[in-house]
Design a protein that fits this description.
By secondary structure, the chain is an alpha+beta fold. Helix content is about 45%, strand content about 20%. It has 2 domains: about 130 residues, Jelly Rolls, CATH 2.60.120; about 90 residues, Arc Repressor Mutant, subunit A (Orthogonal Bundle), CATH 1.10.10.
Length: about 260
């Protein structure tokens, strides 16, 4: 779990492509709205606060250039402990926090916004998330192990082997994993492969080397999958990264993962 505060006052509106990153994001907005558009369905929503679950498709995020709030990044098993399985009943949909947590997120956001200093806000957030954690239901150790294996292997571990190692039958494994993580194991494996492929391409590996390393059948298969999950071919995504490596890394909301791109022109 990690979080940050932000106060943006930019000269112009901002548009960013948000791609599948394997995390659940809770945005606690103090003022101004963020528009999110599901690029798979074309559905747009304007919200000050939101919960973005695991997803396998791209999202366009837009705002006026002025945003103020806090962002909490959660592993999906931690989101399950904090919010239960309600958010997983509507997979891949960005939700209003009240849909999964009642008014408690709204009340917390109001309390955070009233505090004058970031140090006080982080202290209150620590306290409240700690309380919610203690009151929540822990993720199954077997589900957590399977999630970590998918992360560790970049999605390359056979799903059948994971199910076998948990001691559950295939169907029971799939149901429990979906309930506590939010997507099927195969969908999570796709996200992990995407993340690994984009990291390797960004580090300068050739497309052929990357496809082989990530377990795609060939370069064309990798390109199709990247386009399906991000909306753009790999070449356009890489061009959308900022010129310097430091700036490119600063686009990402989660250390060690590729999360965001300037909107590819």
């Amino acid at each position: 779990m990690e979080y940050r505060g932000y106060r943006l006052s930019l000269a112009e509106p901002r548009r960013r492509l948000e791609i599948p990153d394997g995390a659940v994001t809770l945005v606690l907005g103090f003022e101004n709205e963020l528009r999110t558009t599901d690029l798979t369905t074309g559905t747009s929503e304007d919200r000050t606060s939101l919960i973005a679950p695991l997803r396998t498709g791209p999202t366009l995020g837009e705002h006026s250039g002025h945003l103020h709030g806090m962002e909490v990044i959660l592993e999906p098993w931690a989101a399950y402990t904090l919010f239960g399985d309600t958010m997983h009943e509507r997979p891949e949909r960005i939700l209003c926090p009240s849909e999964v947590a009642g008014r408690r997120v709204e009340l917390l956001t109001e309390a955070l916004a009233c505090l004058p200093h970031w140090e006080q806000r982080f202290r209150l957030l620590d306290t409240m998330l700690g309380q919610w954690w203690e009151q929540g239901r822990p993720c199954s150790p077997r589900v957590l192990w399977a999630w970590r294996e998918l992360r560790r292997t970049g999605g390359s571990v056979p799903i059948g082997r994971l199910a076998e190692r948990t001691g559950w039958g295939w169907r029971q494994f799939d149901v429990r994993f979906r309930l506590q993580i939010g997507l099927a194991p195969k969908a999570v494996a796709r996200i992990m492969r995407l993340q690994r492929a984009l990291r390797l391409l960004g580090e300068g590996d050739t497309a052929a080397q990357t496809a082989l390393s990530c377990g795609f059948s060939d370069q064309a298969h990798m390109s199709r999958e990247i386009r399906r999950m991000t909306g753009f071919p790999p070449s356009r995504l890489l061009r959308a990264r900022m010129p310097s490596q430091a700036d490119a890394l600063s686009q990402d909301r989660i250390h060690g993962r590729v999360t965001s791109f300037r909107w590819p022109e």
